[in-house]
C-alpha cells in the first residue's frame, strides 16, 4: 500500500493521509462522527424535552454551579488547542514535541473528568440522583454520555501513547493519532453545546 | 516498500515554504483559540452577570455556541483544508438530521414554547 508513497525525502507532509489505509481511516472516522452527532442530538432533544420535569427534586437553578462549569470548559477548550498543536508537531516530524503536547492534552482531559466526577458526587449527595426526576435522568444521561466519551477518548490516547512511546512518527501510527485527535475535538464540540444548553440555559433560561 | 510503514523518519519532507505555511497555520489556530475563549467568557457573563436582557440571553448564547461549533469544525478539525469534501459532506448530513431530531423529540414530549 505504501508502494506509491514517496518516502525518500523524509516524512510526507501529511503523514496521516499518505497511505491508502490512512485515507480510509480518515474518511471512515468522519462518517462515524456524522453518526455521533445524531446520537448526541437524540440525547439533547430528550434533555430539552424533559428539563422542566423536576417532580419533587431540585431545579437546575438550585443545582448548577457556574464557576465550576467555567473551569471545566476552559480545561476542555485548552486541551483541544494542545491536541491541535500536537498534530502540527506530528506533521513536522517532531516526535518529542508531539508527545509532550499529547500528554498535556491527556492531563487536561483527566482534570476535566475529575471535576465532572466531583460534580456528580456532590449532586448525588445533595439528593439529586439519577431517578429523582425526569430532569435528573435526562441530565445524567446526556452529561454522563459525554463524560463516558471523554473517558474513552483518554484511554484511547493513553494506549496509543504507550504503545508508540519509542517508535517515532510512522505512516502506521500517524493516522491513528490523527483520528484520536479528531475524536477529542468532537468531544470538545459537544461540550460547547452542553455548557450552553444544559448549564447556561439551566441557570438563566426560566 | 511496505516495510517502511513502521519506520520512523529522521527528517520531514517539508520544504521551507511548507514549514512557513505550517507556522502561519499554528498562529492562526492560536488566534481562533483566543476567540473561542472570548466567546465562552461572553456567554458565561451573559447568563451569570446578566449583561444581556433575560429574554434575549438564550438566543444569544445559542448563537455563540453555533459560532464556536463552526470555529472548531472549520479550524481545529481542518474542514477548511483541501480534500475535506467528504468529511464536510458527512458532517453536514449529520447536522441535517440533528436539527429535525431535536425539534421532533421536543415536540413529541410536548415542549412547544421556549
TrEMBL record, chain A:
GO molecular function, one term: cytochrome-c oxidase activity
Gene Ontology CC annotation, any one: plasma membrane
EC code: 1.9.3.1
Domain Heme-copper oxidase subunit III family profile, chain residue ranges per copy: 27-203
InterPro entries: Cyt_c/ubiquinol_Oxase_su3, Cyt_c_oxidase-like_su3, Cyt_c_oxidase_su3-like_sf, Cyt_c_oxidase_su3_a-hlx, Ubiquinol_oxase_su3_dom
Compartment annotation: Cell membrane
Pfam families per UniProt: COX3 (PF00510)
Listed GO biological process terms: aerobic electron transport chain
Record membrane topology: Multi-pass membrane protein
Transmembrane region(s): 27-48, 68-88, 100-118, 138-162, 182-202
Record keywords: Cell membrane, Membrane, Oxidoreductase, Transmembrane, Transmembrane helix
UniProt entry tagged with the keyword Cell membrane: yes
Keyword Nucleotidyltransferase on entry: no
Top-level taxon of the source organism: Bacteria
Family: Belongs to the cytochrome c oxidase subunit 3 family.
This protein's name: Cytochrome c oxidase subunit 3
Protein's organism: Halalkalibacter krulwichiae
Taxonomic classification: Bacteria, Bacillati, Bacillota, Bacilli, Bacillales
Automatic annotation (TrEMBL), chain B:
A UniProt-annotated Pfam family: COX4_pro
GO cellular component term, pick one: cytochrome o ubiquinol oxidase complex
Principal subcellular localisation of the protein: membrane
Subcellular location: Cell membrane
Topology of this chain in the membrane: Multi-pass membrane protein
Enzymatic class: oxidoreductase
EC code: 1.9.3.1
The keyword Oxidoreductase is assigned to this record: yes
A Gene Ontology BP annotation from the UniProt entry: electron transport coupled proton transport
GO molecular function: cytochrome bo3 ubiquinol oxidase activity; proton transmembrane transporter activity
Keyword annotations from UniProtKB, A to Z: Cell membrane, Membrane, Oxidoreductase, Transmembrane, Transmembrane helix
InterPro entries per the UniProt record, alphabetical: Cyt_c_oxidase_su4_prok, Cytochrome_c_oxidase_bac_sub4
TM region(s), chain numbering: 30-49, 55-77, 89-112
Domain of life: Bacteria
Entry's family note: Belongs to the cytochrome c oxidase bacterial subunit 4 family.
Protein name (database record): Cytochrome c oxidase subunit 4B
Lineage summary: Bacteria, Bacillati, Bacillota, Bacilli, Bacillales
